[in-house]
Amino acid sequence: MQGINSNRAQTASSEVVRDINRRIVLNLVRTRHPISRADLARLSGLQRSTISLIVEQLIQENWVIEGATGRLPRGRRPTFLRLNDERVIIGVDIRPTQTTVALADANGKFTSQDVMATAPDPRTASDALVESIQRIIAGCRRKKIEGVGISLPGRFNQNAGRLLFAPNLKWRDFDLRTPIVKATGLEVEMENAANACVLAAMWFDRMEECRNFVVVTVSEGIGTGILANGQLVRGLAGMAGEFGHVPLDHDGPVCGCGSRGCWEVYGSNRAALRYYFESGPERDDLTFTDLLSRADHGDARAVKAVETMAHYLGRGMRMIVAGLAPERILVVGDLTRAWHRFGPVIEAEVQDQVLPGGCAPRLVPAHEEGVARLRGTIALVLQKHFSV
Question: Is the domain covering 87-199+373-386 a CATH 3.30.420.40 domain?
Answer without folding.
Answer: yes
